[in-house]
Predict the 3D structure of the following.
Amino acid sequence: MLRATGVSKSFGGERVFDDLSVEVDSGEVLGVIGPSGVGKTTLLRTLALSLEPDAGTVALGGTDAWAAEEADRLALRRRVGMVFQEASLFDASVGRNVEYGLRVRSPWADRIAASLGLTGTPDAVRESLAVVGLTEKANQHADSLSGGEAQRVSFARALAYDPDVLLLDEPTSDLDPRNTAVIEEAIEEARARGIGVVVATHDMHQAERVADRVAVLLDDGITEVGPTEVIFENPSDERTRKFISGELVY
Amino acid sequence: MSVPIEPVAQLLSVALDSSVLLGGSGPLDSSVLLGGSGPLDSSVLLGGSGPLDLPFREGYVWSIIYVSLYVSLTAVTLSTLFSVPVAVLLGFAEFPGKGFVKSVINTGMGFPSVVVGLVVLFAVSNQGPLGALELIFTTEAMIMSQFVLATPPITAITLASVSGVDDGVRDAARALGGTRLDTALVVLKEARYGIATAILAGFGRAISEVGSVLIVGGNITSADGISKTRTLTTAIQLEARQGQYGTAMILGAVLVALVLTVNAVVVHFGDSGVTR
């Protein structure tokens, strides 16, 4: 489905990662674990087609995004959803936030009608809010939500337009156990819908709970990728083993 | 540079002949100024039929309110249409010299209005580059000068507001499938209170402006006392110079009421759109 092959990325001459390859298939959850600051967010932005890699390819459904025309790349980008560590909701109602992804994909006439309040709440918005348990909050302003609720709305916002791939960047790092559980159930729902999910987290227990496969990202790139139980119980790479066991401290 | 004689003659007359202030015996017809029937004549009511006797010829105050609003609102509307896209482009773009461009815009907020008036006067004078358009001593020339004055504050404050929008909001708009235009629209919406403030600041600068509109507009009324290029500010200036302080205070109150009304309308519409 979404595949990065041999990608490298640097900022200001400082290398973030080099010659990195990773892929996620439909209906699969890939956990990307690693310490903070190792480049997980940069990797996810690269997978989201928001950042062009310095080298390598990022392909969705077999199409190399950065070799495609801009319009085609936009179409590819719109098949990917991303949830950031910070919810960053828009200054609008919850419903309008969740509707945003649908709206930008609509003709301008429909967008104007929606802005004027001439259209109702789309079913996809209600369904996405139901996944994160916030249907009753649709008409509330985003500012009135707690941090956990805001992050759940952020998840619903990315889920509403039914992406092929969903990228989650530390989605529960600031959340309490209850909101974390809701997000993890929503990840399960996305997988059930056939969406490929990439979860970047420094919470190894969460990766163990939700991921089908795990990629371990350390300083010099991905040290090992494999089924979750193999990575956590019998890693083949020595650095991976030390990181999992807590011997490799950052 | 050659300019039409009549408006200049009016200005000179006002400056040199105090006999035209209250009566009709001066070189100008009394209708040019305040009316020829005395300051308290009941025939010179505000609007002609109000409950309060005011020392104005019928229709005079309404006409200068109209000219003031027409000139200032038109100038601010045009300036907003120019300034907001420029500010958004500057806010999104990264290029060498961006700081210098910002400094130039900020400096523009302190432009002396009389200098702007002089420059516009030269531009629209018969010998100027826009002389063929015969704009001198017209409301269009006043709009030009107010456009120049309103543009720097609207651009600078809008730019500050746009730059202050959280990067996370831009990232979210883009990650959710937005194009550059979609992202810009989100940023504009997030910055709307700042932009409203920018427009109000521009309107405040325009409507309260005296120097440049006096220079390029000429402070003219028609023979029947109806304002052609006289605004509330230039009328206040004229009244005060003639010693008609009470009249000047009344016009000042009208001006303040106008500014308050416009501010209230903008704030109301800003608040009503919060949840959409």
The two ends of chain B are 54 Å apart (CA to CA). Residues 5-272 of chain B form a domain with the MetI-like fold fold (CATH 1.10.3720.10).
